[in-house]
Write a structure and sequence with these properties.
This is TIGR03084 family protein. One of its GO terms (molecular function) is metal ion binding. By secondary structure, the protein is of the alpha+beta class. The chain folds into two domains: 2-136, dinb family like domain (Four Helix Bundle (Hemerythrin (Met), subunit A), Up-down Bundle), CATH 1.20.120; 145-229, Nonspecific Lipid-transfer Protein, Chain A. The chain is 52% helix and 8% strand. The protein has ten helices and four strands; from the N terminus they run ααααααααβββαβα. A four-stranded mixed beta sheet has the order 2-1-3-4. β1 (173-178) and β2 (184-187) form a beta hairpin.
Length: 243
């Protein structure tokens, strides 16, 4: 399983690499205060954080996590000479560490298996790639790799409720998404009263908070589903401001 996930992470990273290689990295993106350079810098920094979490979990946990760490480290990395090559090196190194890792990996959110970490890296690469694509006015063709983004979005339902100070739902939610290829991706029991139905791309935009809820074709049925959709997030850390 990890081999396939890492192959998809490579493919997602290469697509973004091709997008930024000849771009103006000073262009602003939809993330307030972040340029294309900030986006790539953040991915590089997160790769290195994941490597530290795998190789030295005690050192990872001893890091001072100030409230501005994400913005600060993105700005610092954006100013580094040769950032594209640094990102290429960091993602190659992380791939090797994930391929050899076992057990749970400590992280900013709940600890994760190597497979879950690889899935999270796909999600974050896709999400920040969306910011870059928006900055460049590029419409990306969705691929089957969206399933990883959607999967982590579904798996983090309880986490999203906790982050917003709400009780974790005790009832299941059925999620039915139409994939880019037309097939149906599903999670949860078929007879669940709470349901979310959407195109996979819209759901991925929702859980990465890359589009406003009002722009998305998402149908929520049931109290829990309706409460979840506005707060859904696939990333660790406090809820964002959305788009």
């Amino acid at each position: 399983m990890i081999t396939e996930l890492l192959a998809d992470l490579d493919a997602e990273s290469r697509e973004l690499d091709e997008l930024v290689a000849g771009a103006d990295w000073t262009l602003p993106t939809p993330a307030q205060g972040w340029t294309i350079g900030h986006q790539i810098g953040h991915l590089m920094w997160t790769d290195k954080a994941a490597i530290l979490a795998i190789t030295d979990p005690e050192a990872f946990q001893a890091q001072p996590l100030t409230g501005d760490i994400v913005d600060r480290t993105a700005a610092e990395a954006a100013a580094m000479p040769g950032l594209l090559e640094l990102w290429r090196d960091s993602r190659a190194a992380l791939r090797e560490h994930l391929a050899a890792a076992s057990g749970k990996i400590v992280w900013f959110g709940p600890p994760m298996s190597p497979a879950s970490m690889a899935t999270a890296r796909i999600m974050e690469t896709w999400a920040h790639g969306q910011d870059v694509a928006d900055a460049l006015g590029v419409v990306r063709e969705p691929t089957a790799r969206l399933r990883h983004v959607c999967h982590i979005g579904v798996r983090t339902i309880g986490f999203a409720f906790l982050l917003n100070g709400l009780a974790v739902p005790e009832v299941p939610v059925r999620v039915e998404l139409t994939a880019p290829g037309g097939e149906l991706w599903t999670w949860g029991p078929e007879d669940a009263e709470n349901r979310v139905v959407a195109p996979a791309l819209d759901f991925a935009w929702l859980v990465t908070q890359r589009r406003n809820r009002g722009q998305l074709a998402i149908e929520a049925t049931g109290d829990v589903a309706r409460e979840w959709v506005p707060i859904a997030q696939a990333f660790a850390g406090p809820p964002g401001g959305g788009r």
